[in-house]
């Protein structure tokens, strides 16, 4: 008796895959549903009773243009979120996701740059302050060093041979030019004459007179008298200049020459003006009368002007002004402070 074989389903051994899929995962069913909906959108007829097989579900899951290539169940960054903050099935376009990420990166970079700029600005300001303070301290130290060297020389060279005398200047005020030249004596000769054309200035003529019979200084030259004449030709102001060494002052420091030796007061007194002792003083800040080279440490000049009023020997009161100048240019070149050009100027009248 022939063995009755088992009936095989129509369609062969692969026909079993045509039935509905019941063991697929939730993600696979969702992907398959999107494939069906996508087909309906493009106008393809969809059988309502048709259900995708497992193989079709896998194919739909692998299709990156439909379900989002490379996404997993734990990656919600490409999906939209509802009001409660939960991810939804609605996908966010890739370009929006990348744009949002790029904005976050740019904001972070900008914040870092702003912080770095602020820190850099503070550091630059602090560096500038440090350099400025250092330069000031170096300049102060250099000035103190020079004063100490000069003070050491004072003990050995506190006096020099007096080679010239200051002419009596007070009587010159009110004289004509010729009368002044005769009264000055000392071989007075006009070395230059300049007209002054300044509106409101009573001085109309400046005359420089060299005292040729007085010994000349090797650095500052011959002692000189300055006559300031008004429109009528009378002296309104008279001045005088020479080196301090010619007047018998040695290598005193600038501050000592002014405040301890009293170079200004003594020179004015010799010219006929009585100045109270201690009238002439230097400012406490040395930077106000000191000049330094570009390196900030080499002292090149000390210069300061003074003014006031005093009583002449004839009882009249006149305004006066004076300038003391120490030029270290040559001394810095030779390395010898004895080459410093020390010059004093005094003016009486006007």
Summarize the structure.
The chain is of the alpha+beta class. It has 8 helices and 11 strands.
Overall description:
The protein is an alpha+beta fold. 35% of the residues lie in helices and 22% in strands. It is built from eight helices and eleven strands. Strands 3, 4, 5, 6, 7, 8, 9, 10 and 11 form a nine-stranded antiparallel sheet that branches. Strand 1 and strand 2 (87-91) form a beta hairpin. The chain is elongated, with a radius of gyration of 51 Å. The protein starts with 25 loop residues before the first helix and ends with a strand. Mean pLDDT is 77; it is low at 1-24, 40-79 and 145-157.
Topology:
Blueprint: H1 26-41, H2 54-62, H3 64-67, E1 79-81, E2 87-91, H4 94-156, H5 177-184, E3 188-195, E4 205-211, E5 224-229, E6 235-243, H6 254-261, H7 263-270, E7 273-274, E8 290-292, E9 299-312, E10 317-327, H8 329-334, E11 341-349
Antiparallel strand pairs: 1-2, 3-4, 4-5, 5-6, 6-11, 7-9, 8-9, 9-10, 10-11
Helix pairs in contact: 1-2
